[in-house]
């Protein structure tokens, strides 16, 4: 019987209600994989970070912390697929994500990385990201948001005090990002167009047009490939019809609104990767 290991995300990276939903999607994928004949062993992110990784032919990776990701890079057996790869998870940390998406030409708001202490913090370069009177987003620059105060929207004049609050919490880097007006859309996907679902975060916006969905899917796949992600989710703004702008991208979200369908697609993709030698960015 083939062996797989399911690596469960630490509660530190699944704040509030996300902990239950994050566990639920991986549980659902595990059940689907067992139907393909896999024996699946669960392992917690803290165990991975401490150096424990059982041998297997396939790894399902929801770990988000840098310690677990770096351990995985060293411990993964050669040739065993890991979905998502630790390199892709690290690429999602904001200080890397901004550079990778910019280099790939992904439609993304003007964004600047800023240290929270030292000379740069005293004179944050808000002029690089906005000149239109809109507020500015200030986000922690390492991992994804773990608390509401990790992502704030403030007037330009309040950016300095906002950065100082991050510094007092021990967060060394933030990103300041232009606000993009327009409807916010959430999306979930599996690389290679194996699965995609999106919807307006405000139901009052109504259904998305076929053209908006097509362009959003293209944008999401482009961004996911730039980071090496196989299982992804995020947020975008429809700045104009057919012109989405990516504002966030995450490795392996909860897929809560479409869990059953997503779990089946992820398990099928993982099984194919492990048994047919598919690559993470394959479109076959």
Indicate the proportion of strand residues: 25-35%
Structural class: alpha/beta
Low-confidence stretches: 278-284
What does the radius of gyration come to?
19 Å
Number of strands: 12
The first-to-last residue Cα distance is: 26 Å
Name the overall outline. Answer: globular
Record the strand order, biggest sheet. Answer: 2-1-3-4
Oligomer, anyone?
Answer: single chain
Q: What characterizes the major β-sheet?
A: 4 strands, parallel
Tell me, rounded to a whole number, the average pLDDT. 90
Helix content: 25-40%
Q: Count of helices?
A: 9
Give me the strand/helix succession.
EHEHEHEHHEHEEHEEEHEEH
Your description of this structure?
This protein is an alpha/beta fold and 284 residues long. 35% of the residues lie in helices and 25% in strands. It has helices spanning 18-35, 45-49, 66-75, 86-91, 94-103, 119-122, 159-168, 210-227, 259-276; strands at residues 2-8, 38-44, 58-61, 82-83, 111-115, 136-140, 151-154, 173-178, 184-190, 195-200, 231-240, 243-251. Strands 2-1-3-4 form a 4-stranded parallel sheet. Helix 1 (18-35) crosses helix 9. It is globular. Residues 278-284 have low confidence and may be disordered.
List keywords for this structure.
single chain; 284 residues; alpha/beta; four-stranded antiparallel beta sheet; 9 helices; 25% strand; disordered C terminus
Record the SSE blueprint.
Elements: E1 2-8, H1 18-35, E2 38-44, H2 45-49, E3 58-61, H3 66-75, E4 82-83, H4 86-91, H5 94-103, E5 111-115, H6 119-122, E6 136-140, E7 151-154, H7 159-168, E8 173-178, E9 184-190, E10 195-200, H8 210-227, E11 231-240, E12 243-251, H9 259-276
Parallel strand pairs: 1-2, 1-3, 3-4
Antiparallel strand pairs: 5-8, 6-7, 6-8, 9-10, 9-11, 11-12
